[in-house]
């Protein structure tokens, strides 16, 4: 894959490839197809980030709400996206002890109740103990700070998903 | 289903129910959950429409690009969403003659090439001959007019999907 190939894609091919760069938000890839041609992957990534930043607060909250819980119902039922399955697996979240599992779910529930969106963290840049530590710390934050933190993590996840494509 | 039940839903339940009110854009339902409580279905619908209207032009184009072609590849391969399958079936698009099929695909391709998004029309309010007639007429429009027309059709589809829920 190179940028020349990307720039010559019709929007269907583009969405097939980048539609999950932001979890379950094909709308975002579909939107930034309008911004082609892209000079580099960074240029494409910047278009995604600018689109996210252009959304009203409800839209940013909506992006977070499209993310699965870590070690949550989608992982249990096997309905995670392929990207999330791989990321949660790498962080050790698919092999938790029962105690770790219960602790994570308990803290996740508290987090969602407080903020109205799930705890989002770039699993690939963390491991299960770091994730639980961050969750316990971030739950203390104010809502605006956590919205900001969550969106920053969405961007890190997006960056690594784009890097993960064989360029 | 009544508004009291809707207003007491957590965001996961809400997205499960309304996530496809706008085709393949769960982000929109996820965003407007922030606007609850809703007094009526119309109030909920208004929140969806206001969110759509708040998007930059690329976002509106993105919404259109998340829609399948009428009688297109997703219908052929059985990968339409349940909503779209039902809507295209009711309009007679699942039982086209080969000639009708070819004509529709040809005009659809021309439309997409001209505008960079698919022809979107509320299939439930039309039938196959009306749809082909509209496609042939609308392909003559200017891009800004067609973006506007497409988004108006998205809102009609959304309205009928909300009405289709057993309230």
UniProtKB/TrEMBL annotation, chains A, B:
Its main location: other. The keyword Lyase applies. GO terms for cellular component: peroxisome. Catalyzes the stereoselective decarboxylation of 2-oxo-4-hydroxy-4-carboxy-5-ureidoimidazoline (OHCU) to (S)-allantoin. One of its GO terms (molecular function) is 2-oxo-4-hydroxy-4-carboxy-5-ureidoimidazoline decarboxylase activity. InterPro entries: OHCU_decarboxylase, OHCU_decarboxylase-1, OHCU_decarboxylase_sf. This is 2-oxo-4-hydroxy-4-carboxy-5-ureidoimidazoline decarboxylase. Signal peptide: none annotated. It comes from the Eukaryota. Belongs to the OHCU decarboxylase family. Keywords: Decarboxylase, Lyase, Peroxisome, Purine metabolism. It is found in: Peroxisome. Its EC number is 4.1.1.97. Residues 7-163 form the Oxo-4-hydroxy-4-carboxy-5-ureidoimidazoline decarboxylase domain. Pathway: Purine metabolism; urate degradation; (S)-allantoin from urate: step 3/3. SUPFAM superfamilies: UraD-Like (SSF158694). It catalyses: 5-hydroxy-2-oxo-4-ureido-2,5-dihydro-1H-imidazole-5-carboxylate + H(+) = (S)-allantoin + CO2. Pfam families: OHCU_decarbox. One of its GO terms (biological process) is allantoin metabolic process. The keyword Lyase applies.
